[in-house]
Amino acid sequence: MTTETGKGGGLTARMRRLAAPRRRGKAARRTGATIRMLAALVLAGGLYVAVAPATQAADADAATLSRSAEDGKALFDQNCITCHGRNAQGVDGKGPSLIGVGSASVDFQVTSGRMPAARQEAQIPRKRPFWSGEELQQNADSLGQYIQELGGGPQLPATIDAGQGDVANGGALFRVNCASCHAFSAGGGALSSGKYAPSLEEATDRQMYAAMLTGPQNMPVFGDSQLSPQEKLDIIAYVQGVKSDQDPGGWGLGRFGPVTEGLAIFLVGIVALVFATLWIAGKS
Fold it and tell me: CB under 8 Å to 75, separation ≥6 — which residues?
């Protein structure tokens, strides 16, 4: 009897020992699952914190924008955000980031009508501006101030007076730095891959200064280390002088140089000589 009891007691104890690890394993699994869930929550929170600062920073920046920049932001959200994205960070395949381009670039693109662009192409042409009159410059200034406060960049000086420029020195600088693309008479010229250097006939003093500062499209940047502010004024004075000069030889033929002049001489002169020769031969 004692032996059976002992055997029974031993069997019960053995079953308890076998069941204990199972209970401990189940508790360990629950603990592990809890730890993994906490780790997942921490990871998700970390990813959110990594992504959210851009929006939070934008909201913080919006609170510190100047009044002019706030007006510019309203214009940007209405007219530019589709291509340039929220906070002017750009949209792939539509428009580049505007962070760091500065207010000078905005002034050039908006007042020359290149922005808003009608479509994506090899080069955005000049066209009638989206706004007109005083509203054009006011809106360009507001948009420029918004972009300037977002990421900085080149700014136009307070006053740009081509009358302070040296036309002779500007001509020398233009021939060295600009004529290879814009032609000696600033009439523009063709480049590769469907691109071109535009004519400067309609360019204003501000637009030419901004173009030299920012290098739009295919144009190189001429910072103050390449061309000083006074040298920029000299070039502008030269270009404005060329536009106002009369053609001393009569018909300017677009001022494209000897190529068009030679072609005109050939077409007009040779044809006239041929007809004169035939007329003389007929009379004789």
Answer: 139, 142, 143, 146
Taking the C-alpha atoms of residue 40 and residue 53, their distance in angstroms, rounded to an integer, is 21
Rounded Cα gap, residues 188 and 93, in angstroms: 28
The Cα 70–Cα 54 span in angstroms is 18
Tell me whether residue 119 is exposed, middle or buried, using C-beta atoms within 10 angstroms of its C-beta: 0 to 12, 13 to 18, 19 or more.
exposed
**In angstroms, rounded to a whole number, what is the distance separating the alpha carbons of residues 95 and 147?**
15
pTM equals 0.69
210 burial via Cβ count (<10 Å: 0-12, 13-18, 19+): buried
Q: Give the three-state DSSP class for 235.
A: helix
H/E segment holding residue 197:
strand 196-197
Kindly give the confidence (pLDDT) of every residue in the chain, 284 residues in length, as a single tens digit, with 9 standing for 90 and above: 445 455 555 656 666 655 555 555 666 777 777 788 888 888 877 776 665 545 444 544 555 899 999 999 999 999 999 999 988 999 998 899 999 999 999 999 999 999 998 888 888 999 999 999 999 999 999 999 999 999 999 999 999 999 999 999 999 999 999 999 998 888 888 888 888 999 999 999 999 999 999 999 889 999 999 999 999 999 999 999 988 876 656 666 666 666 677 788 888 888 888 889 999 988 87
Task: Give the whole-angstrom CA distance, residue 143 versus residue 98.
Answer: 11
Type of residue found at 255: R
Structure letter (DSSP) for residue 186: S
Residue 214 to residue 102: CA distance in whole angstroms: 8
